[in-house]
Amino acid sequence: MTDIPHQPAGRSMSIRFGKSGSLVLALILAALCIVISIAEPQFYSEANVIAILRQCALVLIVACGMTMLIITAEVDLSVGASLAFVGCIGMSVLNATHSLALGMLAGLAFAGAVGLANGLIVTRLKVNSLIATIGTMMMLQGGVYLFTREAVQNHHQLVDFTALGAGYVGAIPIPVIFAAVIFLIAWITLRFTVLGRFIYAVGANEKAVRLSGVRSERLKLFAFVLTGLCVGIAGMILSSLMNAGQPTAGRGFELTVIAAVILGGTSLTGGRGTLFGTLLGVLVLKVIDNGIIILGWNQDLQMIVPGVVIILATYLDIVRSKANAR
Predict the structure, then answer these.
(1) I want to staple 196 with a disulfide (CB 3.0 to 4.6 A). Which of 65, 151, 190, 318 is the partner?
(2) CB-side exposure of 138: number of CA atoms within 13 Å?
(3) Mean per-residue pLDDT for 34-40?
(4) Contact 260, 187 (CB under 8 A)
(5) Residue pair 87/151 in contact by the 8 Å Cβ criterion
């Protein structure tokens, strides 16, 4: 196998944009925090900060996988439906076995299998990932109701399971620790490994990657499965927070994840993006969500904001691409 250049053009552009784009996002985040805290001082209360961090953690876990996937020029719209199904399956296995480990393994296995199925449909059947994952999303949304018509409650009230979502290590919520570890692993992979360079390269110029002897289909399949496994972890944490598996738990979750990734500067055309940008995108969206709640505004706005963000961020990405081409 022939190595590709150490820093592909797409990755170089990603780093250059990351510096300026991340700075803008950081300034927007700071401005949002200042404005909301002036309007409602409760924003900086310990309970509210922890609530924001927990919500950010769930989105960031999946967004790490989604960032890698979108960098390869693919996307997964089934993550919300899979998130809900994971919670129901994991809770059912946990109730049947009284084992958190088996419940977690069942949830991860299911989510990984969904990611694998999506990847095979895209890479082997050559179905556009947008269409393929919409189809998967619809099957999962219907399938979860065939699996259970009601929320799957935590019948045995296992302390370890409750701690997964609501527990702490010192003063740090456990979901935040999960998110931090996954973010760090993903960042190291993208920034310092050959695998990371290939992920950027396959999105920037898939034909060149193939000519260099690398099988781009395997890289995309890896990204789909990784995204699925991230959904599995987030799904089990969410079911722990709710103390139940809810068939409707993931409605709109995919929009929030994709909006955060695109807002963070990852290009839908592939080859460009940074995980730090994704982190800032998650924080901006969740601070806005939290501000809507504590300011007493209509909570339906929480669904409107990601849609607006996706449109604006996609438009800005088109503008950037045209500018780079010139």
Answers:
(1) 190
(2) 5
(3) 94
(4) no
(5) no
CA angle 187, 193, 194 (to 5 degrees): 135
Q: How many CB atoms lie within 10 A of CB 69?
A: 32
Which residues, 6 or more positions from 268, have their beta carbon under 8 angstroms from its beta carbon?
A: 70, 73, 75, 262, 314, 317
From the list 106, 89, 111, the residue with the least C-alpha distance to 239 is 89
* Cα–Cα distance for residue pair 131/106, rounded to 1 Å: 27
8-state DSSP, 173: E
12 by Cβ neighbours in 10 Å (0-12 / 13-18 / 19+) ranks as: middle
State how far the alpha carbon of 205 is from the alpha carbons of 6, 71, 212, 263, 265, in Å. Answer: 14, 11, 11, 23, 18
Give residue-wise pLDDT tens across range 72-84.
Answer: 999 999 999 999 9
Q: Extract the tokens encoding 224.
A: 């789909």
Please, is 50 exposed, middle or buried when counting C-beta atoms within 10 Å of its C-beta (0-12, 13-18, 19+)? middle
Task: For 192-297, list the strands marked E by DSSP.
Answer: 244-245
Domains assigned to the chain:
9-39+50-321 (1.10.3470)
Give the list of residues 6+ apart from residue 14 with CB closer than 8 angstroms, or none.
Answer: 200, 265, 271, 272, 273, 274
Instruction: List, in sequence order, every beta strand (DSSP E) within 43-97.
Output: none
Per residue in 173-194, pLDDT tens?
999 999 999 999 999 999 999 9
Closest CA to 24 of 258, 284, 241, 253: 284
